[in-house]
Each structure stands twice: as C-alpha cells, then as structure tokens.
C-alpha cells in the first residue's frame, strides 16, 4: 500500500488475498462519506454571523477570565447573530482548581462566569450557545456529556450537549468540545509522504460518520456506550464541523464540510484565538459551502 491512515476503532474494508494463511492487503477502503443536507439554508434579512470560542477562557495562572472579557467586548461591538461558547468553562485541569485553593464552589464560579457573558448582552439579538465538556468541573465526567446546568434564565441563552448536531435555519453545524484530533494524532498510523496531517485527522470524523471514531478512547475520556450510540453519530455530513483542539488552528474544506479548529481562547499564560463565520444566503436557489461560507481565525 502506498498510502494509508489507520487508527484503532476505524471501520475499513480490506481487499486482498489469502496466501499461506496470511492476508495480503492490496487495497483499503476507509471512506464512507454521507451526503450534505439536502435543504438549502435560509436566512431572513441577509447573511448570518457566528462567533465560536473554545475554552479554557482564562490563563492558567489566574481566574480573572480576561480573554473571555475581551471576547464579550468584541461581541458587544460586532453584534454577531450567534455565539458558541465551547467548554470547559471551569476547567478541571486549571492549577488553581486542582490545588484546592478555590474560595468558592465550582457552581458558583460557573454561574459568575456565565453571568459575565450574558449581562452585557441583555437586550441584544445575539444568542449564546454553551457547549458542555466532560473536562468542566461542573459537568458529568462522561462522553457524550449532557448540557450544563445553570440556575438563572436568559432568553438568548441555550445549553447543548457534547457533541451536538444543530440546524440553524437549515445550516447544519456539528460541534464537539472533545479534542478528538489530538487523541487520533497520538495513535494514528499513516504512510509517509502525506503532507496535510491536520486535514487527514479531521477527515476521519466525516469518513467514519462519528464525532469520536477512536476505540478504545483516550485515557482522559470516559465513554458511555449507550449514549455514544445515540448521540455521537453523524446522520449527515454537516455544512460546518467545529473540532477545537490543542493542535494548530485551521480552516479546511473536507468532503464539502467546512471543518474548523479555532484552538482555545486561552493558551497557558497567553491569550489565544477564536473564529468568526459569515454565511451568505442562497442566491437564485444556489448555495455551496465552498462559496457561501467565509471563516476567519482571530487572535483575542
């Protein structure tokens, strides 16, 4: 085989022949891409603007959440229609949390952080969606992860599970908070001479029709098998696939899907990055992910 990319749990079809009790592989079939959604997105009043940021949202030497404050300031100025806040919001790995010196409960800190997002957006048309993460101190430490709980109510705030497949006026978005790209990168066995490693890792999700195709999972992840079967499958190839990762940020068109790794809003003691999307409506019944979706990685 000249080219291959394999990992544990991957579903493949091997074509070859048995010779002296050994199977010699001539060809591997690993791609089973589902079609894109059949319906075209429809946006009343023009284009759709989306901002997506992934946690951690504060530097690892403090809990001031300054990168998040800066992001909220950006949102209040630019007024996107939709903002995705991808957990963890209160990361279990933060040094000030693991040290046990936090002067409040995880839930109190979570409530305070969410309020710092929503209060400046009161009365605005911007809707906020918070995506759960199993690495959040207030979440159930299981994947798929149910939506986070929050005691206050805002009309423009919603909570969704990790992973989630969402339809926004016909625009299908798939989003996860789990770093599947890093997990796959640890164990993938690929032939040399393949340049686009990040694109190849991301393509496994679309080709395997699963948010988390790796099995057994990475040691940091606890999978609920029953929930996985019902909540971690891709029923279509999404128009947009969001896969935040520690790996370098990217925007790629893979099998017709715009796949984005925005990285994290905070990286160590430094501020990180987020992504801004602009989706144009169909014109005369014509719409394509390659021509009607523009995306930009921005530094905070």
Automatic annotation (TrEMBL):
The answer to whether keyword Nucleus applies is: yes
Q: What is its main location?
A: nucleus
DNA polymerase alpha/delta/epsilon subunit B domain residues: 50-252
Q: Does the keyword Nucleus apply?
A: yes
**Regions that span the bilayer:** none
Q: What biological-process terms (Gene Ontology) are attached?
A: DNA replication initiation
Give the matching PANTHER family.
DNA POLYMERASE 2 ALPHA 70 KDA SUBUNIT, DNA POLYMERASE ALPHA SUBUNIT B
* Listed name of the protein: DNA polymerase alpha subunit B
Tell me what organism the protein belongs to.
Clastoptera arizonana
